[in-house]
Prior knowledge:
single chain, 189 residues, alpha/beta, 6 helices, globular, binds magnesium ion
Amino acid sequence: xxxxxxxxxxxxxxxxxxxxxxxxxxxxxxxxxxxxxxxxxxxxxxxxxxxxxxxxxxxxxxxxxxxxxxxxxxxxxxxxxxxxxxxxxxxxxxxxxxxxxxxxxxxxxxxxxxxxxxxxxxxxxxxxxxxxxxxxxxxxxxxxxxxxxxxxxxxxxxxxxxxxxxxxxxxxxxxxxxxxxxxxxxxxx
Length: 189
Ligand SMILES: [Mg+2]
């Protein structure tokens, strides 16, 4: 069984990293920027253009190589692999802009963070990659995958709560439990 796992908002705390970059740029305490944000961070007075500005700034500053790992991700991935699953990292990073720095920093981050995985795929449309399960936080990808009858676990984040998801996980323990329950995995098999 292959599990397609997104990076930003699922494995990596991109929002927390970007928040730090913006706070530094604005000379404010990061705590003044709420974690309860929608896509493109309108709560931080950003829109698509404003987000892109800070995103580019963050990428140039090497943010993608030093994001925090989201709690519970590594033990859950280790358990899934122990149970016989293959972990396929699926990311849009660099797939739209093609910047080499994104790819290099992403690989460095995966290695430095010791994320357990089997394959790495850079992809714009996740529906073009075959997996048995997808773990995803983007409302656009969640809905596109579900429309094609794929099994998706919405990784609960404030920005995807409007997306109607068949499966929703609040954290990585939940992801593991859903896959195990729905797929009949035997722990430690
Ligand atoms: Mg994501």
